[in-house]
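Q: For a teaching handout, I want to show students what a protein-ligand complex looks like in token form. Below are the inputs, and the small molecule is 2-acetamido-2-deoxy-beta-D-glucopyranose. Please produce the holo structure.
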Amino acid sequence: MLHSLLKIVLTLSISPLIRFVHGSINPVEIHEQHFFDSVTREPFFIKGVDYQPGGSSDVTSKQDPLSDPKICARDIFLFQKLGINTIRVYSISPDLNHDACMTMMAAAGIYLILDVNSPMENQHLNRYEPWTSYNHNYLQHIFEVIEEFGHYNNTLGFFAGNEIINDGHSAKRSPSYIRAVVGDMKSYIKKNSPRGIPVGYSAADDLRYRIPLSQYLECHRENEPDSSIDFYGVNSYQWCGQQTFQTSGYDQLVSAYKEYTKPVFFSEFGCNTISPRSFAEVEALYSTDMINTFSGGLVYEFTQEPNNYGLVAMDRDGTAHLLHDFVALQNRYTAIESNEFQMIRKNAISLMAAAPLPACKDKYENIQIDEQVPQDLAKDLVRKGVDQKRGKYLSLKDSDLVSEFDIYDENGVKLNGKCKMEVVNKIEILQSDDEHVSQPKESNPDPREPPRQAEKQKEKESNAASFLTLSVPSAFFWTTCFLYFALHCNAF
Ligand SMILES: *[C@@H]1O[C@H](CO)[C@@H](O)[C@H](O)[C@H]1NC(C)=O
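A: Here is the structure, written as tokens, with 2-acetamido-2-deoxy-beta-D-glucopyranose included.
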């Protein structure tokens, strides 16, 4: 009742920018081939961008895309303007602190899909000679990433690899190693993470390998039940300019993955050979043609880099200039939030049926799966856990949420007023003395049965008037950060 009332209010609200602060940031989980909010049970479609300012090679032990809270404040404000719910980041350094950026993202309702690899030494597989790089140091690195990010509710999933297989040679050598890394990551998560964070792979835009690899990574092996992926990311640049579901070949993509038992989504899309981009494919991606098979996608990419795929150009001093493509995508993402599109998505999901996991075959077309991968290399690290600070949400000040940088719209007009992200989720921060004692999985409350009473009580205690930080000095203390959305940059 309250829920539907709220919806009506939402629909009727004068400004489309007004949203309401609702509950906490809920983990997203997978059932069959779809993502769901683990608490509300609403289907979750990925609507996002790839985010790696400066490119992956710009990651050092001093900076990465989620280490600078000031840059995050600017960009999360823009994520919300763009209308997205997820970003994908290609590499981070687990030596840096990401708490502030992850807190802001959680408060703003933005999820993260994170690749665990980086271009730095010992932090990725060598695609042609994977046996030279699949070692203790590599595993240590990827487990550190998991250890840190697995503690944030808004970590939606991890990519075990991105386009590792991209030619005939890598297709011979790497598939078994990719599957081994997926298995190691899933074992680590099962043993050490507070919840079951999904693990996937992001495939290059090459039909020779993309489909057989998806089948190989999906299939079930009796003796290694945890080595199949939880979701599959497809990088696709086949819809360029004015196309249709048929002329783009999206129809064939859908047929190829129709029977797939895991969620599939575009981990990269947005062909730029015809520029400016109109992103007409967005409408197809979130329509009845595709939503049974695809769980949305991520546009490549947020910042303008030399390869010219950007939505926003950044100056060295941090000033942001929205490009034409930003506005085009913003309009597309706004359009698919119409009531009609929302109803379509809801109804589609209810028709889904469970499919059994196919058993692994001996051979897959165009890829070779018989490399002997060292067994049990990860065993000790999985059992002991790696020594790594765990991510946690912080309490932030109102001023932390405001962009310090100037932002110009696509016409070169500077946005005036405060460019402040809107807080849509209340972040409750629980800190305990024994932060470093790992918590047994069983102690997690069933997400389907939230502690209603406690929740109600907390609700009462919160004050919606303004940003409020409330801390009780005891072993456990709750900090309730609550903010009602304030003035935004007027120009939007
Ligand atoms: C994280 O998600 C759980 C539900 O699984 C919820 O109880 C908790 O409050 C969330 N934490 C935050 C900080 O939002």
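A: Two things your students might notice: The two ends are 33 Å apart (CA to CA). The chain has 14 helices and 16 strands.
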